[in-house]
């Protein structure tokens, strides 16, 4: 019985560490041209099944949703930029996107640090 508890505790500790690493990868994506965000999204999808039934599942969902919404808004900004006439709106969209991503990373990391799920009412 003790081995099962130890194995489960080790698995949860490993998931916690991985979730911290993924938040760190997202946090530095501005400095790497987005490469670390691509690494984080791939790892997130690969390891997502391992998080089922834990609070880390909600963090993975939070990170994955943050990534895809940021891609959508970045593309919208690119489309606005391509019109030339709407370049100021493109920069505004990208600025809001940067602040929003910063908010998502900080909030998620703080919740992880406190051991709280991102979506307390949902089952993952």
Automatic annotation (TrEMBL):
Keyword Transmembrane: yes
The keyword Transmembrane helix is annotated on this UniProt entry: yes
Keywords: Membrane, Transmembrane, Transmembrane helix
Top-rank taxon, per record: Bacteria
Transmembrane segments annotated in the record for this chain: 21-46, 66-97
Protein name according to UniProt: Putative transmembrane protein
UniProt source species: Cupriavidus basilensis
């Amino acid at each position: 019985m003790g081995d099962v508890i130890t194995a489960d505790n080790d698995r949860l500790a490993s998931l916690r560490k991985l979730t911290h690493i993924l938040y760190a990868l997202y946090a530095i994506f501005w400095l790497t041209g987005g490469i670390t965000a691509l690494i984080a999204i791939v790892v997130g999808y690969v390891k997502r099944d391992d998080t089922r039934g834990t609070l880390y599942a909600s963090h993975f969902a939070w990170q994955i949703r943050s990534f895809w919404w940021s891609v959508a808004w970045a593309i919208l900004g690119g489309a606005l930029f391509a019109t030339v006439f709407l370049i100021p709106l493109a920069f505004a969209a990208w600025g809001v996107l940067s602040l929003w991503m910063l908010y998502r990373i900080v909030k998620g990391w703080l919740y992880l640090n406190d051991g709280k799920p991102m979506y307390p009412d949902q089952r993952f």
